[in-house]
TrEMBL record:
Superkingdom of source: Bacteria
Cofactors (names): Mg(2+)
Documented EC number(s): 2.7.7.24
Domain Nucleotidyl transferase: 2-237
Signal peptide interval: none
Keywords: Capsid protein, Magnesium, Metal-binding, Nucleotidyltransferase, Transferase, Virion
Reactions catalysed according to its record: dTTP + alpha-D-glucose 1-phosphate + H(+) = dTDP-alpha-D-glucose + diphosphate
Protein name: glucose-1-phosphate thymidylyltransferase
GO molecular function, one term: glucose-1-phosphate thymidylyltransferase activity
Family stated for the protein in its record: Belongs to the glucose-1-phosphate thymidylyltransferase family.
Annotated organism of origin: Candidatus Komeilibacteria bacterium RIFCSPLOWO2_01_FULL_45_10
Amino acid sequence: MKGVILAGGTATRLKPLTSVVNKHLLPVYNQPVIYYPLEKMKQAGIKDVLITTGTEHTGQFMNLLRSGSKFGLKISYEVQEQPRGLADAVRLAEDFSDGEPILVILGDNVFQHNLKPAVAKFKKQKRGAKIFSVPIKNPGQYGVVEIDKKGRVLSIEEKPKKPKSYLVQTGIYLYDGQVFDLIKKLKPSPRGELEITDLNNLYLAKGELTCEVMKGWWVDVGTSFDELLRANQLVAKEIRK
C-alpha cells in the first residue's frame, strides 16, 4: 500500500497567516502541520508517500521534506495546477499507486488514532473503500455519516439541516485500485470541483464502503483559528505527558 497526502488549497479561512505560507506548513506546537500525517503514514507501515499541492507552494514542501529520508519514507510530489477539488488531487496519484491500494490523508488533519490495524485489514480486502469518522457535537457543519452496527455506510450527507448521526467524515480514506476509474466518472459540483464525498458515494452505491470510528481527538486545522489553536494545545498536552 502507498500513501497520498493532499496538501493543496488556498486556506482563505486562515488568512493573513496563509497569505504567503501554505496552511500545511504552519506550526502546530513544535513542528509543521504536514509532519503529523507523515508520522501517521509511517506508523501505519507505509513507506512510499506522494504529496500533492498547488503550483505556488511546491518548492516550499520540497525544501522542507526533500526525499523523505529523515522520516524513514520515500516522498514524491505532484502538482495540482488548478484547484479542481480533492478527488481531482487523488487522481494525480494514479501512476504513483501503480495498482496498489492507497491511504489518503488530508494534510491538515492532526489526530491520535492509529491507522495501522485498519491498513493491515484493508490490504486483505479484494475491493472497496473505507472512510474514517469521529463523533462531534455539531455535525451539521460537515459531511455526516450514518452507519450500521457492522460499520457499513448507509448514507453520507453534506452539511444536513437534520443530521442522522453525530459522526462526521474526516479527511482520511482507504481506496482500492478502482478509485481512479471511479474518479473519471465524476462530474464537477456546482463550485466546479470533483468532490471526494461524490467519490465515496460511488463506492456506497456499489455496497463497497465501510467506516471506522476513530479513537481519541481529531482536529481539522484548516477550518479556523480556533481549531489551529486547539491542535496546538492538544499536541502540547500529549508531548508533555
